[in-house]
């Protein structure tokens, strides 16, 4: 969470001079979106964070209506931020705007100076056929000593696109190519692209707006997707075959990755979705939070997402059960609102089985595995206040087993199924008294092992 007020996208995620830095879209005066600033926090282990002073505020002619999303890179020992300046240029703020890209630099990772010749990339360098308004969210990377930037945009006719630019010095940029485009089924504008190398492949991750649902997939108004392919930096082209959803829950948007000093590719996302109810906006002084950072693993042509090793150092009060034959509902003799679970089910002949979390009077959040449809179903209809609904992820049992790692943290649930083959994230707002945990089965199944740890706070 931000220190106060509003938070949306993660920005400038980087390991710099021995610490993890995370910046974020931030409105520091109200728990509501407003002219964007960049909030800033640092961490030694990606778990415990300290706030630093706000890094960027909208105070220049080229960014007066907001310092929108962007990224960070180290160059000659200094920390560079590249961000979008947002400018409202007419009476209708939702239609009459333009966007440009700007640099800011810091020697100590705390105080940032905006570059004197900003913007470094403006609308005059938008190629024919791309939107003249939506030109935002620069993600920087370097290949063979040359800097590249990917940007989110659209073709003005209902298809999201990603543009790429190149530079020798971060300050002057030339257009390199349009590297991806919606096939017409993938949303009308693409935001927050990220392009990174993993195990010899290139991965393009982005956030399509208003992508229509495909069966149980892409059921949120705005989604996140990735493609695995090869980037041709010379031709400015990215070849890929198919795309995949990143997270199958309710609240996961604008993910950004970084490579750390241990060689891990780590992703963090805004745990929220635009245009949904956020109960903390009423009577609280904050809105928006980040997901746990997750390590990305390349596994047989798809990505897996795993909790970091660092989470284990925060485990307290282990509670363990094993080999329970289950039919009906069993209240587990452990409770809480900030904990980790590691549960292995053997399906046996059960038609469905799962867990109820944050159980209290009339409240429960249900994770149910349905054997016939091979779906894990995350239901928050009875979770408490705030948005309800249900999301489903296709998951195959492994030798009859379903393994779940789950992080419950006051108003959130993050589910890692089958070692991160599928992840599901959602906000929930139960009563503070809804602390129960139960396991259930229709038909008989086996709880091979159930472990719970409180998370030290
Ligand atoms: C994504 C986004 C970005 C933009 C920022 C503004 O959530 O819409 O495209 O830069 O939020 O806060």
Number of domains: 2
Rounded radius of gyration (Å): 22 Å
Quaternary state, please?
A: single chain
Distance between the termini: 14 Å
Query: What is the name of the CATH superfamily of the largest domain?
Result: Glycosyl hydrolase domain, family 43
Beta-strand proportion: over 45%
CATH architecture of the largest domain: 5 Propeller
What's the CATH topology name of the largest domain? Tachylectin-2, Chain A
**CATH class descriptor name of the largest domain:** Mainly Beta
Largest sheet, if any? 10 strands, antiparallel
- What is the global morphology? globular
Taking pLDDT < 50 over at least 5 consecutive residues as the criterion, the unreliable ranges are none
* Structural class by helix and strand composition: mainly beta
Count of separate DSSP helical elements: 0
The helix fraction, in percent, is under 10%
Bound molecules: beta-D-fructofuranose
Mean pLDDT: 97
Extended strand count: 31
Supply database-style keywords.
457 residues; Jelly Rolls; mainly beta; 31 strands; single chain; five-stranded mixed sheet; Tachylectin-2, Chain A; binds beta-D-fructofuranose; 0% helix; ten-stranded antiparallel sheet
Structure description:
- The chain is mainly β and 457 residues long.
- It contains no helices and 31 strands.
- The protein has two domains: 306 residues, Glycosyl hydrolase domain, family 43 (Tachylectin-2, Chain A); 145 residues, Jelly Rolls (Sandwich).
- It is 0% helix and 56% strand.
- Strands 22, 23, 24, 25, 26, 27, 28, 29, 30 and 31 form a ten-stranded antiparallel β-sheet that branches. A five-stranded mixed β-sheet has the order 4-3-2-1-19, with no helix packed on it. Strands 5-6-7-8 form a four-stranded antiparallel β-sheet, with no helix packed on it.
- A hairpin with a 6-residue loop joins strand 11 and strand 12.
